[in-house]
């Protein structure tokens, strides 16, 4: 954008905005670049010299250990299963609830919305939720990760607002042609709802992919741990206190291995999100804007 078209005050404001945006980009980009570069460095070089651009100091041992480690690869697949399952349930529930609440003739619509809004600010708490999950027999299963937080009131509100923005003439014309409510929803509403569906899917996938707290509470079998929980344990192991391990050599080896795979694991954990976003990006802006107009 050329600055010649603007007044002196506008130019000053634009320059300030550019500087602030540049600082924000640096704040976000520098840690990402550090993690990426550190994942290729030998631990001894990283701990003593920091980031090095000398090719002799670079190694792929961290990534090799990750792909050779059955625990990490299994946890990666577990995270993918949890994230995909959570995304499917969340999107289906949000779309169905949002569309239903967008129908003008729905009896008790305002009361239902008030009830939903209350749950955004008040909940039963961790201990009652744990007992509910336990009494339903969901402990140590994938459903303990997927179901408790699959219903998001915010996502339902986003979907409801999007559906209210669709023209009623489409539904009325379909009814005149003899279409039922189910046919209208499946053949007209859903195809027009790709932007909000992709936005909700992206939100749900990212949220579940980065989650570890539910797994830490509800899962007992370590074979079912997601990647983020395994990564958390790696980071904790890299910060063992002196004296916790009697053999200093064993402690040094543990820290060296943990340091080697710590950054590589972070990079691997980010790959699905980096792969997803370019495919969702064309829908993302439209879905967010349209779903938040009212």
UniProtKB/TrEMBL annotation:
Domain ABC transmembrane type-1: 76-279
Main subcellular location of this protein, as a coarse class: membrane
Compartment annotation: Cell membrane
Residues annotated as transmembrane: 12-37, 80-101, 113-131, 143-163, 184-206, 260-280
The keyword Membrane is assigned to this record: yes
InterPro entries attached to this UniProt entry: MetI-like, MetI-like_sf
Keywords: Cell membrane, Membrane, Transmembrane, Transmembrane helix, Transport
Pfam families per the UniProt record, alphabetical: BPD_transp_1
Membrane disposition: Multi-pass membrane protein
GO BP annotations, alphabetical order: transmembrane transport
UniProt superkingdom: Bacteria
UniProt GO cellular component terms: plasma membrane
Family the UniProt entry places it in: Belongs to the binding-protein-dependent transport system permease family.
Record-given protein name: Putative aldouronate transport system permease protein
Species the sequence originates in: Aureibacillus halotolerans
């Amino acid at each position: 954008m050329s600055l010649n078209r603007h007044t002196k005050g506008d130019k000053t404001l634009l320059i300030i905005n550019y500087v602030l945006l540049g600082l924000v980009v640096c704040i976000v980009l520098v840690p990402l670049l550090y993690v990426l570069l550190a994942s290729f460095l030998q631990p001894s070089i990283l701990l003593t010299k920091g980031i090095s651009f000398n090719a002799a100091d670079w190694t792929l041992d961290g990534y090799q250990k990750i792909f050779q480690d059955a625990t990490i690869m299994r946890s990666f697949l577990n995270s993918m299963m949890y994230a995909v399952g959570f995304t499917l349930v969340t999107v289906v529930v949000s779309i169905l609830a949002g569309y239903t609440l967008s129908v003008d003739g729905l009896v008790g619509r305002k009361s239902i919305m008030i009830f939903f809004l209350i749950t955004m600010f008040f909940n039963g708490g961790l201990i009652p939720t744990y007992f509910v999950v336990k009494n339903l027999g969901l402990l140590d299963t994938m459903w303990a990760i997927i179901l408790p937080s699959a219903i998001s009131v915010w996502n339902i509100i986003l979907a409801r607002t999007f559906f209210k923005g669709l023209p009623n003439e489409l539904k009325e014309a379909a009814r005149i042609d003899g279409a039922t409510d189910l046919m209208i929803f499946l053949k007209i509403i859903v195809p027009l709802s790709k932007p909000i569906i992709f936005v909700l899917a992206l939100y749900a996938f990212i949220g579940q992919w980065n989650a570890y707290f539910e797994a830490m509470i509800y899962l007992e079998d370590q074979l079912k741990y997601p990647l983020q929980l395994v990564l958390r344990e790696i980071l904790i192991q890299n910060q063992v206190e002196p004296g916790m391990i009697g053999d200093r050599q064993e402690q040094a080896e543990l820290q060296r291995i943990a340091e080697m795979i710590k950054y590589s694991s972070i990079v691997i954990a980010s790959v699905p999100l980096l792969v997803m976003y370019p495919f969702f990006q064309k829908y993302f802006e439209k879905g967010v804007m349209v779903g938040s107009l009212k």
